[in-house]
Amino acid sequence: EAPPPEGEAEASGQPPLACYVPVFSAPGYPASSEVIGAFEILLSLDTTRTNLRALAWLIVAGSVGVLLALFGILTMVAKQATGLVQAERAAQQRLESELARNVAELEERVMKRTADLSSERELLATILNEAPSAFVLLDQQATVLFKSRQFDALMDGQPSNGADSKDRPSVDLSLGEGICSHCGHPESACAARAAIRDGRPHTAVHASAQRNNATRWLEHRAVPVSLEESTVRVVEMITDITAQEESQRSLARASTLALTGELAATVVHEVRNAATTTKLLLQLWAEREPQHSKR
């Protein structure tokens, strides 16, 4: 960089940029030519510096504008995000309050339904306990899940006359035990197990000897309770039909005696007819015998 002329230096205040370009005597590679002169080019840097300063200020202003725009965008996005978060929280709170209200209503309904079922079960147990027949609820293994008060009386041979349960001797059968070991008949003849096997109602009548050497007749009627074509429970109703059996046997004996009486009456009638005929013949022969003796 060469010093500028005095006039230019005073006018611009900044030294110019001097560039020297050599001039060769012949074209070609510079090493094979002879330098015969040089061009001196002086360039003023004021405009370039001014342009660079303007460009720098423009870049700074653009950067500040971009930053301000980004700040505005971020602020708007933050506001929108805050609004969305608040709306989401409000919706979540509404959902939680609605869910809590629904849960409270459901719990209230469940408690009410449970109380209703308990009262209905107590009422059903009372009705079943007062019924003359015994009711037993069994599972798929013929295990007792529920038994009415009359069951102990029937299984122990006591008459089901509605007496208080404290005055009755009861069998040792607890809930969760099998029923076949207490009924006194083989499992192959159990109506409950047959209902569990084929899912159809079954009825069986069994006789057992009592303490007074009398015969007691019990009718076991098992009805399956199915769920999706599968037997899950069996309700067995046990009824003391000793009086009915005795009545039927009395009627059968009466019918037999009546038939025997009718047969005896028929035989007597036929014998009487034959005897009457014989008597008449004997009388006729006796009347005709003196005439023959006179002759």
Q: Can you walk me through this structure?
A:
With 295 residues, this protein is an alpha+beta fold. The chain contains six helices and seven strands. It has helices at 6-12, 46-130, 149-155, 180-183, 191-198, 242-294; strands spanning 17-24, 35-43, 134-138, 144-147, 202-209, 215-226, 231-240. The strands form two sheets. The chain has a five-stranded antiparallel β-sheet with strand order 4-3-7-6-5, sandwiched between helices. Strands 1-2 form a two-stranded antiparallel sheet. Strand 5 and strand 6 form a beta hairpin. The longest helix is centred in the first third of the chain and has 85 residues, at 46-130. Residues 158-173 have low confidence and may be disordered.
In short:
The protein has 295 residues and is an alpha+beta fold. The protein contains six helices and seven strands, in the order αββαββαααβββα.
Helix content: 55-70%
Proportion of residues in β-strands: 15-25%
**Cα distance spanning the termini:** 212 Å
Strand order of the biggest β-sheet: 4-3-7-6-5
Give the helix/strand layout.
Elements: H1 6-12, E1 17-24, E2 35-43, H2 46-130, E3 134-138, E4 144-147, H3 149-155, H4 180-183, H5 191-198, E5 202-209, E6 215-226, E7 231-240, H6 242-294
Antiparallel strand pairs: 1-2, 3-4, 3-7, 5-6, 6-7
